[in-house]
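ok so for the tutorial part 2 we go from a plain amino acid sequence to predicted structure tokens. step 1 is just haveing the sequence, like this:
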Amino acid sequence: MSLYTGRGDDGNTDLRDASRVSKAGSRIEAYGTVDELNALLGTIRPTGDNDVDDVLGSVQNHLHVLQAEFANPSPGDDPTIEVTHVEGLEAWIDEFDAELPPLESFVLPSGSETGSALHHARTVCRRAERRAVALAEETGTIREQPLTYLNRLSDLLFALARLRNHREGVPEESPTY
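step 2 — the prediction. this is what the tokens look like for a chain of 177 residues:
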């Protein structure tokens, strides 16, 4: 099988149900931004912490499911993001947050190389969430769980950025006003 087909040369692409849509459409923007987030997380692993790497690996698999869900305007029996995925994120947030000093102010997205990269991933996740909300508003076909997942994932990525900075002994900086 060839890596190229030429089918997208006209600016259109196929969805899961074989329908053709513009590559500039909101559905493509939504799952494309999730794909970007997934690739960014791939550049962060390995972090040097097995527990963080395991979580990021699980998240990457979840994001693959989420991409497929967004690419399918007529979901059937395909895997989907469920409440249990969101609950898993919340459990990881609680676990990692327990290791951190209390958050007393906003922090600048900076720190160690891995901490800064996780802050960057958090911002891409927020963009993915905005794109997903736009898709949901436009089509009315996006379920609540994927939107909640992306919202909670950005919280997890924030906690992981703080955790990596903490474990590496890099102090957090608060903005000055």
